[in-house]
């Protein structure tokens, strides 16, 4: 029996739109893969780096450039950082889109010989990389990280025993320490102590983790419903839409809910909150965009929620949601989700085709 084929589908903001050109719509559209297929993707806002059978390639609106000799990427809107066995280097975004390696890098670091399969970027020997200056930060020796995720102002590390560390900016509760204070050094997320994690993800100003048992925890900013907790902003949007749909009744000024009702809404969740998916589904993988979240269940279904202005939730519209919703397109097409990677305003999902 033939193995299922892997393909990458995209929902949301496109590189064409980032360049001011008409985009293909909210999606899904298919990433052109070529004969070797696409193995990994690293999205930024206006471009994406993909690993094909022929190596890395940077793609922007109407532009494709090979990145020969490099194994991993860490992109941002200011710089593109690349890694290979013996070195990590960063180029300004414009230079990288012309073809990284043609000019002097903005930063370079020699890497000592390491294991055949080193931990993935942003981790580097002795610390971690960032796709903006200063490009490298040391990690305390006590933190033995096997994975690391970068948010807009904060970082999460997954320790060797499944423990979770968080540090950086904390003004939206994204560190999970129960306060809005920042932390200069990695600090154990005590609320998750004793619960081994298998994955961590950092959004713009929110965080998520998946336990080895398949439980999902979320914390941080919930302005757009990205924690799948009740959002006042989204409730007000829904009420306004209902008012507009009510004809003349919509001309009546809508009354604000009493202050006591605000307690039902959550704008910031400073401690990790256990989130139950419909039917108590177990989660296998999580990724966070700027203000949206996506998970893949252990059964291969994709659920998304949060900000949806550009169709990045994959539900065929531009509606935001503070409730987990299954992406029905994949179900209707008989596709099983295998990986998900959120860009700031985009969702990339690897599917298995029968």
Report on the structure:
By secondary structure, the protein is mainly beta. Helices cover about 10% and strands about 40% of the residues. The chain is globular, with a radius of gyration of 21 Å.
Task: Summarize the helices and strands and which ones pair or pack.
Layout: E1 5-12, H1 15-18, E2 29-30, E3 38-43, E4 48-52, E5 55-60, E6 63-67, E7 72-75, E8 79-84, E9 87-92, H2 93-99, E10 107-110, E11 123-124, E12 127-129, E13 136-138, E14 145-150, E15 154-159, E16 164-168, E17 183-188, E18 197-202, E19 206-211, E20 216-221, H3 232-244, E21 268-275, E22 283-288, E23 292-297, E24 302-306, E25 321-326, H4 328-332, E26 336-342, E27 346-353
Antiparallel strand pairs: 1-2, 1-27, 3-4, 4-5, 5-6, 7-8, 8-9, 9-10, 11-12, 12-13, 14-15, 15-16, 16-17, 18-19, 19-20, 20-21, 22-23, 23-24, 24-25, 26-27
Helical residue percent band: under 10%
Q: Quickly give the structural class.
A: mainly beta
Morphology: globular
Mind describing the biggest β-sheet? 4 strands, antiparallel
> End-to-end distance, in Å?
11 Å
Radius of gyration: 21 Å
DSSP summary: helix tally:
4
- The number of E-state strands comes to 27
Low-pLDDT stretches:
248-261
Nearest-integer average pLDDT: 92
Strand content: 35-45%
Could you give the order of strands across the largest sheet? 2-1-27-26
């Amino acid at each position: 029996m033939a193995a299922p084929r892997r393909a990458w589908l995209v929902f949301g903001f496109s590189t064409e739109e980032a360049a001011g050109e008409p985009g293909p719509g909210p999606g899904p559209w298919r990433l052109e893969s070529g004969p070797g297929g696409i193995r990994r993707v690293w999205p930024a806002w206006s471009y994406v780096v993909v690993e094909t059978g022929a190596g890395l390639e940077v793609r922007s609106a109407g532009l494709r450039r090979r990145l020969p000799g490099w194994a991993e990427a860490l992109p941002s809107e200011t710089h593109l950082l690349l890694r290979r066995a013996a070195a990590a280097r960063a180029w300004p975004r414009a230079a990288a889109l012309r073809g990284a390696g043609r000019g002097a890098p903005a930063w370079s670091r020699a890497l000592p010989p390491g294991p055949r399969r080193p931990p993935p970027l942003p981790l580097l020997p002795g610390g971690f990389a960032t796709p903006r200056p200063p490009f490298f930060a040391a990690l305390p020796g006590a933190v033995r990280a096997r994975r690391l995720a970068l948010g807009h102002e904060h970082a999460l590390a997954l320790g060797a025993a499944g423990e979770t560390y968080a540090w950086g900016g904390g003004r939206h509760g994204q560190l999970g320490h129960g306060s809005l204070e920042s932390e200069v050094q990695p600090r154990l997320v005590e609320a998750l102590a004793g619960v081994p994690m298998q994955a961590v993800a950092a959004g713009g100003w929110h965080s998520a983790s998946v336990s080895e048992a398949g439980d999902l925890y979320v914390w941080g900013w919930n302005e757009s419903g990205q924690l799948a907790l009740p959002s006042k902003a989204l409730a007000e949007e829904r009420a306004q839409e209902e008012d507009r749909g009510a004809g003349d009744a919509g001309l009546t000024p809508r009354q604000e809910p009493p202050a006591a009702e605000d307690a039902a809404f959550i704008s910031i969740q400073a401690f990790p909150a256990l989130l139950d998916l419909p039917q108590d589904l177990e989660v296998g993988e999580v990724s966070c965009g700027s203000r949206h979240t996506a998970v893949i269940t252990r059964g291969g279904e994709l659920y998304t929620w949060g900000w949806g202005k550009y169709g990045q939730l994959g539900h065929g519209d531009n509606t935001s949601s503070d409730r987990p919703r299954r992406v029905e397109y994949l179900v209707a097409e008989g596709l099983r989700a295998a990986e998900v990677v959120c860009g700031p305003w985009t969702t990339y999902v690897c599917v298995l085709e029968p």
